[in-house]
Design brief:
heterotrimer; A alpha/beta (302); B alpha/beta (407); C alpha/beta (555); A: 302 residues; alpha/beta; eight-stranded mixed sheet; 8 strands; 15% strand; globular; C: 555 residues; Alpha-Beta Plaits; Fumarate Reductase Iron-sulfur Protein, Chain B, domain 2; FAD/NAD(P)-binding domain; 18% strand
């Protein structure tokens, strides 16, 4: 195998993810590195379904289902118990974008600020997919959802969750996507290597039904998100040190949008497209600047 | 060896959590509960109490952290009050569905708006149907002991329990407290044996999706266990006496033997009602007191047998269910419904928002109940300008008028 | 749900055991299913021998040298030779080149490395001895290949050749700097070690007849090549020297220069070889060709080498007369222009009537080679004088087969090898045996549009580089070196492995359902595959295809 990805599987077949589910794939890949001595805390999200209806359970780690807004703090409680019991088990909060950016943000911020010894992983499909595709604060500008219909597509930019997380000065935060499995696995390992503090992974996670696209393009679309700078891959150490881990290329934004029906009206609206281009470029420049300031030794090199 | 200290109800609650060897404490400050949090912080920080204290960012998170910790097999404790308990509501349900024997102390505080830090019991009684056991403490000693008693039962039925303590009247009032000998408490309250503990060697899923074919059965079991808890509370209360020196019961009577008029009360105001009953006796009125300690599970059989054949029952409710009546009154009426010799139940609403419930208040109620011919759902006691009595029929909404006094 | 008939059957909370999701047969959701398709890479399709190139590349990458060598020799026993001289039709349709505009994979260099690296590997043991004796006439590539496969299938093989040493065109035609005689020696030695007998200096029609062979052997394969230069039709033909004869002399070490200025007539590989050998002997060389570089049949790189060697090219000239003028030859050439395409698709040279004169010390003909079929009994020949052959080289005599340049006219080494292999198979089957032979059926070729280039490292192609110390045009030493293993491994990395699963693991890694099981390689678990198609879309070499579920269930 040419991939440096552990062969061990911790997700059984028969999950209830849709065809081409990025959330299922992300879980599968992440668990390969997290390993068996892990407890996952799942707030309401697609994975509440994907893991299967009782008495079915797809994963071979313990999974504690919990309320929508509580992933980070329930994980905190679990970790506190494990600590009291003298166990080194990794505790992971695994939340969607709603459970991270929106309803889960308060508990997430609390846990991050307290620097709880947990790994918080957001699999971000950029809308409330489990309830049938409603906008969240992760939904990017110009997106169609059932609450941002074509007549009034999402007007606001995607919330900068990484900026929010960085502001908490936690030891490690990173973006990743299953389209770059080795980068993803490396970041999970990096997160695992840090003990005694909060770690945050933001995974762009394709949703073919919600993004109105062909399931077989699931990987390609995530890859294009990275290549077009829509979703740059980077990590932040201690809230300050930025490192871009995968350089985008000159793929035009349209090549990302055109694979997805949710951007149909955006593609027809040159003004909004220009706005989006500006947003993407601005964020990239900010990131690039932070990367360069974090790595003066790499000045000029990509 | 047991210690005798002069402590407030709040500090007693913290001692209760410590004696119970709670392992994970997660709490958020709210007046008038704050002193519990502060003392527990000191106790854990100093190492006197070997527990993890999580300073969460909300009461919702406080209960969520307890859910996490308890799910992982730790004994979890929190304390809150009023708005905080209301914010916890969702997670209170969660603790029940997840069958987690978490114990919390609620320092009862009136709900906003307007902002009030003072006592009434609407906060805790609003959580009547979530499936938590509920005990109402009257004294500083009970504020401590009921936590221990509650854990003992909760961990047998895998249901959470809350101990109600009235704001300020109890939370901030110092009384002599016997701090039990730890070994004795340990003998009474063995180590928590969880149903499950999120052990990766047993990689299960907990609390996932349940379809219509199964949910009802799981909920039925909650009802069944709450029902068991009634008997267990009695047994564990008895045992508390054996091991720790004071027997507790779900219901407590005072001068009931020949009582014709029974006054029902819960929480700290009961002390004044008890004094009033003594005063009534001196006046020759055959009065008695019934204190409701356990509100959930509700001791229906005890209430029926105690109240059967009495001439009148006056229930003092420091709460109100707008559109119905005082909640204790309603619960007692429903317990008595259709019983032979069921007495008429007169519901009195008192002390809302921290208005004092004095001995005189109870005496006024006594005067009223003696002469009032027909029972009323809700008789308001102490509303300015109104005599004790039912709602006015001609009430109207009045716009704000400039007040002379404010100028 | 069984076992939950009573409330007492229930646990206290909804708790589920690990990995129980396998009771949910999510494969039922599927309307299309991925399968591993039996398709062919365009390189393999372009190879006359159909060598499964991605398969051996995969073997090399995984360090399975023996398997790689076996994969090649199943269809081409002489990768050392073709790795040096093959015009590598395999590289023409490389999907990498078509989809990216990058250069194709350097397949011939890989094959050469494999041939060299596999030289000392044992060939597969011969099948059980059949007791059948078979004669092979001609020890060029066709005869060698036939001998090799006949021996592998258990027959006793004797190879006859008229020259002092076996190898035919490989030894006596292809110049030393392209194919060193040691390589030929070693390949012959390999055949000898397989107990193939070689009889040299014996010629059909001179020392024995076909009837003699038919009497003594169970079957005969004739592959005597095309060893005669065609007549040019130039007035003064007799003054021309044969290019082939010159190359043979050069390889025997007996060639001499007619003088310092030489011309070669023709544009094929022999013309290039003659011109380059002449350069190495010190001549000033001009190639006279009636069309242009675009239409030349010579392999492009041989032309480039000739240019690099300093060979002059005169395009659109056709020699009409050659006259002796003292020690020199006076050549009158007519200028040509290119008209409409002929049946070969190349533009046809048309005379202009304009002539000019050129002076040379020697002129070599290399316009094409033909076979001398006069030694064969008339029953084997057709009206044109060529042998009358079936698809696998069968003749009217049941146990006589023929192939190679003898049958086709001058062609490539690999085509001769294929002819030898096919004849060997036909003979084996004709004799009533049924050895296992590689499949010949054409397979669907993976088209460029199916390729996923995402996972390809983009780096430059590595070609055989000039041999250290070989300063063309002076040396007859082999002009290029075999690439190093490191270079080969890097080159291999560029291969998309079209149609061949090289266990890259991409499908396994990206399956959101974990429905690709990895036991040594990928296996699709159709019980759970939801048919999302990611594996198919991501497969770099498009080994997988999606088929309609209904078609599968009906099948």
């Amino acid at each position: 195998m040419r991939w440096v990805v552990p062969e061990a599987e911790h997700m059984a077949e028969g999950t209830l993810g849709c065809q081409g589910c990025g959330g299922a794939l992300s879980m599968r890949l992440v668990l390969k590195e997290l390993g068996k001595d892990t407890v996952a805390v799942l707030p309401a999200c697609c994975w509440s379904i994907i893991d299967g209806p009782w008495p079915v359970h797809a994963l071979d780690i313990p999974v504690l289902h919990t309320a929508f807004e509580t992933a980070a703090v329930v994980a905190t409680g679990v970790k506190a118990a494990k600590e009291i019991q003298g166990k080194d088990t990794t505790v992971v909060a695994w939340a969607g974008d709603g459970g991270t950016f929106d309803i889960g943000l308060q508990a997430l911020s609390g846990a991050a600020e307290r620097n709880e010894d947990i790994v918080f992983i957001c699999y971000d499909n950029e809308a409330y997919m489990n309830t049938g595709i409603q906008r969240s604060s992760s939904t990017p500008t110009g997106t169609w959802t059932t609450t941002t219909p074509d007549q009034r597509p999402e007007a606001r930019p995607k919330k900068d969750i990484m900026g929010i997380i960085a502001a908490h000065r936690i030891p490690y935060a990173a973006t990743a996507t299953a389209a770059y499995p080795e980068d993803l696995e490396r970041k999970v390992r990096a997160a695992m290597a840090i003990k005694g503090g909060m770690r945050f992974l933001h995974l762009l996670s394709v949703c073919p039904p919600g993004w109105k696209m062909e399931a077989d393009q699931a990987i390609e679309v995530m890859r294009r998100a990275v290549r077009t700078k829509v979703f740059p891959l980077y990590e932040i150490r201690n809230g300050r040190e930025y490192t871009i881990t995968r350089w985008p290329d000159d793929l035009p934004l349209e090549d990302y949008f055109s694979l997805q029906g949710r951007f149909k009206t955006l593609l027809e609206d040159e003004a909004m497209l220009e706005l989006v281009r500006g947003n993407v470029e601005e964020r990239w420049q900010i990131l690039l600047d932070r990367h360069q300031r974090s790595h003066p030794e790499l000045a000029g090199a990509e | 060896m047991p210690e005798r200290l002069l402590l407030t109800g709040n500090h007693a609650a913290a001692y209760g959590a410590m004696l119970s060897k709670a392992e994970v404490i997660s709490a958020y400050p709210i007046t008038p509960q704050t002193m519990i949090v502060e003392l527990l912080s000191e106790l854990t920080a100093s190492g006197r109490m070997p527990a993890k204290f999580i300073t969460v960012e909300s009461e919702h998170s406080a209960m969520a952290a307890c859910v996490g910790a308890s799910s992982a097999g730790a004994r979890a404790y929190t304390a809150t009050s009023g708005q905080g308990l209301a914010l916890m509501h969702e997670m209170l349900h969660w603790a029940v569905g997840a069958r987690l024997p978490i114990v919390l102390t609620n320092v009862s505080r009136a709900m906003a708006p307007g902002w009030s830090i003072w006592c009434d019991q609407n906060d805790i009684l609003s959580q009547r149907d979530v499936g938590w056991m509920m005990l109402f403490a009257e004294s500083v000693q009970e504020a401590q002991d009921f936590i221990i008693w509650m854990y003992r039962v909760a961990e047998q039925v895998f249901l959470p329990g809350m101990v109600g303590m009235d704001a300020f009247i109890l939370s901030h009032t110092a009384e002599p407290l016997i701090v039990h000998d730890q070994d004795a408490v340990d003998a009474y309250l063995p180590k928590f044996e969880p149903l499950y503990d999120l052990d990766p060697a047993q990689p299960r899923a907990y609390g996932g999706l349940v379809n219509r074919d199964h949910y009802f059965e799981l909920r039925y079991k909650i009802y069944e266990n709450m029902d068991r808890a009634g008997q267990l509370l009695v047994e564990a209360g008895e045992e508390f006496g054996d091991v720790l020196g004071h027997k507790y019961t779900p219901l407590e009577g005072y001068l009931l033997d020949d009582a014709e008029y029974v006054f029902v009360s819960a929480g700290a105001m009961t002390s004044n009602v008890r004094q009033a009953v003594r005063d009534m006796r001196e006046k020759g009125i055959k009065a008695g007191l019934l204190r409701v300690i356990a509100f959930r599970p509700f001791p229906i059989d005890g209430i029926r047998s105690i109240l059967a054949g009495r001439r009148k029952v006056a229930v003092l409710d420091r709460n109100m269910s707008a559109g119905h009546s005082g909640i204790f009154a309603e619960e007692i009426r429903s317990a008595l419904l259709g019983q032979p010799d069921a007495p008429p139940v007169y519901g009195y609403i008192v002390g809302i928002g921290g208005r004092d419930v004095r001995v005189e208040t109870a005496m006024d109620i006594c005067d009223d109940v003696l002469v009032r011919e027909e029972p009323e759902m809700a008789l308001f006691v102490g509303v300015k300008g109104l005599p004790i009595g039912p709602l006015r029929k001609d009430a109207s909404i009045r716009p704000l008028q400039p007040l002379e006094v404010m100028r | 749900m069984s076992g939950l008939e009573h409330v007492d059957d229930y646990p206290e909370i909804p708790v589920s055991l690990a990995s129980t999701s396998t009771i949910l047969k999510t494969g039922a959701w599927r309307s299309v299913r991925p399968i591993f398709a039996n398709r062919m890479a365009p390189c393999s399709a372009g190879c006359p021998a159909g060598v499964r190139i991605p398969a051996y590349i995969d073997d090399i990458k995984e360090g399975r040298l023996e398997a790689a060598y076996a994969t090649v020799t199943a269809r081409n026993p002489f990768p050392r030779i073709t790795g040096r001289v093959c015009p590598h039709m395999c590289e023409d349709n490389c999907n990498l080149a078509i989809t990216t505009g990058e250069e194709s994979i350097s397949i011939r260099s890989i094959e050469r490395w494999l041939g060299d690296a596999g030289m000392d590997l044992p060939d597969p043991a011969a099948d059980a001895e059949t007791g059948k004796r078979i004669a092979v006439v001609g020890s060029g590539p066709a005869g060698m290949a036939a001998a090799y496969y006949l021996r592998r299938t258990g027959h006793e093989v004797t190879v006859f050749d008229q020259r002092p040493q076996p190898g035919g065109i490989l030894r006596y035609g292809i110049p030393e700097y392209r194919l060193p005689s040691e390589v030929v020696d070693e390949e012959i030695a390999r055949l000898e070690s397989m107990e193939i007998n070689f009889h040299n200096n014996v010629a059909l029609g001179r020392d024995f007849t076909l009837d003699d062979l038919e009497a003594a052997y169970a079957a005969v394969f004739i592959a005597t090549g095309a060893g005669q230069e065609k007549l040019t039709g130039i007035d003064g033909e007799g003054l021309l020297e044969s290019g082939l004869d010159f190359l043979e002399a050069a390889n025997r070490g007996t060639a001499t220069l007619p003088g310092p200025r030489c011309a070669v007539v023709g544009g094929g590989n022999v013309a290039m070889d003659v011109a380059r050998v002449l350069r190495r002997l010190g001549a000033d060389v001009s190639v006279l060709y009636r069309r242009t570089a675009n239409e030349m049949p010579a392999i492009a790189e041989e032309y480039e080498h000739a240019v690099a060697d300093g060979v002059h090219f005169h395009w659109l000239v056709l020699p009409r007369t050659i006259k002796k003028d003292g020690a020199q030859l006076r050549v009158t050439v007519e200028e040509m222009w290119l008209g409409e395409p002929d049946e070969s698709g190349r533009l046809r040279p048309e005379p202009t009537g304009v002539t000019c004169e050129m002076h040379f010390d020697g002129v070599f003909s290399a316009i094409g080679e033909t076979a001398d079929t006069g030694v064969f009994p008339p029953r084997l020949r057709n009206d044109d004088g060529w042998l009358d052959l079936g698809e696998d080289g069968e003749t009217v005599d049941q146990m006589v087969f023929a192939g190679g340049d003898l049958a086709t006219g001058p062609a490539t080494v690999i085509e001769a090898i294929v002819a030898g292999r096919r004849a060997a198979r036909a003979i084996d089957e004709q004799l009533g045996f049924s050895a296992v032979w590689p499949a010949e059926e054409p397979l669907e070729v993976v088209p460029p549009k199916d390729i996923n280039l995402t996972y390809m490292p983009h780096h430059d192609r590595s070609d055989d580089h000039a041999a250290a110390g070989a300063t063309a045009p002076a040396s007859f030493a082999e002009e290029t070196d075999t690439l190093s293993e490191a270079e080969i491994l890097e080159e291999i990395d560029r291969c998309l492995s079209c149609g061949h699963c090289n266990n890259c693991g991409t499908c396994f890694v990206f399956c959101p359902d974990g429905a690709i099981i990895w036991d040594d390689g990928p296996r699709i678990d159709h019980e759970f595959c939801k048919g999302c198609g990611i594996c198919v879309a991501e497969c770099p070499g498009h080994v997988m295809v999606l088929v309609n579920e209904r078609d599968v269930s009906h099948a």
